[in-house]
Amino acid sequence: MVDKEIGALKIGDKIEIYKKYSKEKELYPSQILDVLENNKFIISGPMKKHNLIFLHKDEIVTVVSLIENKGRYEFDAKVLNRYMGKLYRIKLEKISETRKIQLREFYRLEISIPVIKRFIPKEEDTEGTIVEECRTKDISGGGLRILTNYLHNKGDIIECEFTLDDKTILTKAKIIWQEQVDTFEYKYCMGVQFIDINERDRDTIIKFIFAKERELREKGLI
């Protein structure tokens, strides 16, 4: 099996790969086609806009996968062979330990999207839930930077609701910092960290970010 410690990759699992020593580290979608002995496995060959992405023998790639209820993991693999028949396939060998992708390693995408923020104040003279329409300043798999008009305290717990690609994500988040900003609509910017997000929703966020990042790279904007 590829990795017995995290629940071995199996046939049909969707993965993403990138060329380890490429400066761009562009992610390409792929899939596990077969799992062999001695840490060897076969994946569908990566493509971009219907064009094949050629990998060479002995080239090193990084394989990224989502392990349900555990998180996102990656490991390095060496290209053993490639097959150019009806289906473009790559034979790989895992050559490193599996690494969990830490929250601080998630790419931050600067983007403005609507966020509904809900907060129950602790003050005795305030009743009910405060609901505010905010906007993001950026987004990552670990949290958000949000523009708001409400002055929070560090450590406050809020509920965030936002939509990506027609999928609504609802999660609690902890406020890590907050500062004043000079914008037309908002007085403050705050950084929040997701605290109970499920991995499917996190994966939706990361896939959204990767897709937007690819678009920006193709346009030469990053």
Outline the structure in words:
Helices cover 9% and strands 48% of the residues. By secondary structure, it is mainly beta. It has 2 domains: 88 residues, Electron Transport, Fmn-binding Protein, Chain A (Pnp Oxidase, Chain A); 110 residues, Beta Barrel (Thrombin, subunit H), CATH 2.40.10. The protein has a 6-stranded antiparallel β-barrel. It is elongated, with a radius of gyration of 21 Å. The N terminus is likely disordered.
Q: What is the number of independent domains?
A: 2
Q: Largest sheet, order of strands side by side? A: 1-2-3-8-7-6
Q: Number of helical runs?
A: 1
What Rg do the Cα atoms give? Answer: 21 Å
Named at the architecture level, the CATH assignment of the largest domain is Beta Barrel
Q: What's the CATH H-level homologous superfamily of the largest domain? A: predicted glycosyltransferase like domains
* Distance, first to last CA: 38 Å
For the largest beta-sheet, the strand count, sense and barrel status come to: 6 strands, antiparallel, barrel
Query: What's the mean pLDDT score?
Result: 84
Q: Indicate the overall shape.
A: elongated
Structural class given helices, strands, pairing? mainly beta
CATH class annotation of the largest domain: Mainly Beta
Helical content (DSSP H or I, runs of 4+): under 10%
The low-confidence runs, each spanning 5 or more residues with pLDDT under 50, are 1-7
- Output the CATH topology of the largest domain: Thrombin, subunit H
Can you count the beta strands?
Answer: 16
Strand content: over 45%
Order of helices and strands: EEEEEEEEEEEEEEEEH
